[in-house]
Amino acid sequence: MLAVDVKGLSKTFLGDKKALNGVSLSIQEGEMVALIGASGSGKSTLLRHIAGLIKGDSDGGKVDILGDSMQVNGRIAKNARKTRSQIGVVFQQFNLVTRLTVLTNVLIGLLGSVPRWRGTFGLFTQDEKTRAMAALDRVGIADHAGKRASNLSGGQQQRAAIARALTQGARLILADEPIASLDPASSKKVMNTLERINKEDDITVVVSLHQVDYALKYCPRTIAMREGVVIFDGPSAELTPDFLRELYGDESVELFADPVESKAPVSAPVREEELALAAG
User: Fold this and answer.
1) Alpha helices, DSSP H only, in 85-227?
2) How far apart are CA 153 and CA 37, in angstroms?
3) C-alpha torsion sign, points 185, 191, 192, 193
4) In whole angstroms, what is the distance from residue 199 CA to residue 202 CA?
5) How far, in Å, CA of 241 to CA of 255, rounded?
6) How much is the pLDDT for 122?
7) Angstrom distance (rounded) from CA 29 to CA 4
8) Which of the four, 6, 44, 241, 252, has the lowest number of CB atoms within 10 Å?
9) Mapping DSSP to helix (H, G, I), strand (E, B) and coil, where does residue 52 land?
């Protein structure tokens, strides 16, 4: 089964600017795929369409997830909530509720599968808490379960977001530049975690990356975008500096930039749409 099947997807924002222009791609279950491109290439916009957070233009484009329709002709499918429950999204700025404990943030991944009244009052069973703790152990931060999320480092918060997706039972993880605000050591831990759950759990992972070095190391396949168009889809090993210069010209320098130096992450406010998606 295809984990992701996108056909003819376009998105026009203000005026006539095409953020996506006739994008078509498919990703098999169990793949780990990098999505690369310079700033403004359409990576994040594409991931948000795949997740059903925004609608494409009404010109025939469609997105199917794990055999179910997510959107077609600019309309979100009626069963999108059920489809979203199989998608875990890891955002660049973590999107944890910082005042809550790490364990509670991870349990939010179950909100789509527990009765609404239990979710509203944060009433989770012991089995559910055990499941969340197991996910935290998988990502290496079980000893931080009782801490407020705001007390974690950026890399730890990102791994907590991955644990939330595991607790949710996601079959597809979309990671939108998950290491963009992290130092090199934390970036490596996050990418190692995504690689491990891909290999051990057969969870499909699509990770948007600003630097091609990580794509070469962790993802057998890379999809490269420029100005809303897929300009390469194939083995990551083919992405040599010379080939990237052919694809991107001067923009290729940006893709081989040095990793971000260590700095304190800035957490963005959690938007309702993103918290809802985290909850399935």
Assistant:
1) 102-107, 116-121, 126-138, 154-168, 184-201, 212-218
2) 27
3) positive
4) 5
5) 9
6) 78
7) 8
8) 241
9) coil
The values of phi and psi at residue 193, to 5°, are: -65, -45
The answer for residues whose C-beta is within 8 angstroms of residue 196's C-beta and 6 or more apart is 138
Taking 70 as the pLDDT cut, the residues of the chain under it are: 257-280
Region class of 195: left (phi > 0), else alpha (psi between -120 and 50), else beta? alpha
Residue 200 amino acid letter: E
Averaged pLDDT score across all residues of the chain: 89
* Per-residue confidence (pLDDT) for residue 257, from 0 to 100: 55
Q: Using the 8-state DSSP alphabet, how is residue 70 labeled?
A: E
- The amino acid sitting at 237 is A
Residue 62: name the closest of 13, 23, 116 by CA: 23
Question: Cβ contacts of residue 274 below 8 Å, gap of 6+?
Answer: 53, 89, 91, 95
DSSP secondary structure code for residue 237 in this structure: G
220, 205 in Cβ contact below 8 A?
A: no
Query: CB of 107 within 8 A of CB of 171?
Result: no
Q: What residues have CB less than 8 Å from 209, skipping those under 6 apart?
A: 34, 35, 36, 177, 179, 215
Inter-residue contact 106 to 165 (CB < 8 Å) = no
Torsion of CA 17, 248, 22, 43, to 10 degrees: -80
Three-state secondary structure call for residue 100: coil
Burial of 58 (0-12, 13-18, 19+ CB in 10 A): exposed
Amino acid residing at 83 = T
CA distances from 50 to 26, 32, 65, 66, 217 (A): 11, 16, 8, 11, 24
